[in-house]
Model the fold of this input.
Amino acid sequence: MSKEKVHLREKVLARGMIGLYLDYSVQGKRKQETLKGIKLFAKPKNKKERDYNKEISNKAREIRNKREHEIIANYYPENAIYNPEKSFVEFCEEIAENKNGQTSTQSVWISMIYQLRRFDCNARLMDLNEDWQESWKNHLLKSVKQNSAHTYNNKVRTAIKEAVEKKYIHSQKLVKGIPYEEVERQYLTNDEIQALYKTECTDDQFKRAFLFSCYTGMRFSDIKRLSWSNVSTDNGTTYLSFKQKKTRLVENLPIRKEAKELMDEFPNDSEKVFKGLKYSAENNHKLEVWVLKAGIKKKITFHCARHTNAVMLLNCGTDVNTVSKMLGHRDIKSTMVYLKFTDELKHKAMNALPSFNF
Done:
């Protein structure tokens, strides 16, 4: 259908104006359709004229989209999949539904759709022009934090690309995304980990799971799913073989004796290594209390254990490529952010410089 696509074109008029017309082919016959009363200032001189051009351009694009839809419906029934009037909210809900089983990913889509409903619950796929996208970005930046806005906007961009790929719409230019704001990644020092070891926690299993993550760098979702069938021993070394829930990458991770001792005792009447482990608001509170009792004043979440593992490995001299593989990062850029926390490496590098007699 690409050769029958409706094009919006311009022609020069008198008195510094530009006229707009539609240019398209139907079953091999070319047609041109003047948009009566639709004119633009060729060289807008002020804000009023620029705003007028913007409004008229949007109106012209809506006419173009509608005409294309009519042509396909009347002359090309084999392209029935083309559906620019489909609700964008419904389209995003369908994508979210297909994420079933990917809990964290699906929850992000659901949160984005909540904001989308607040912003424009009636938007159709054909309405998602550059102006709409800019207004959506402004809504997000006023409604949620910068990095949430970054994430939600990326989901909308993904949905638009998918609509084009599925041929519900022919094409749609994407505006510049919302930048990600670098945040401080909290991690624990060796002394702080030692303090947590010595400090009692009201949930012993949750304590062991957190320290296990410090040693292995595993995400909570992967620790929760870890089964005894994922654990093996070869020449005295214990290995964890599993597929990461987030990235779907397969890992074969060697672990230290200290990490193995943190697991539930085998057997524990369950196929899971940490039987009944749950992540909840209650456990988050237990973690917060435990950290404070240990004399640590940092804002620590379970995921900080993963940050801790990355920093420990780098401080021990592990090269960044190996750390990236051990953490299961798809992109080494995700690992590089930890380098700024490795003060010990900086000191070692400085002390390694030669001395000179001046």
About this structure: Residues 88-165 form one domain.
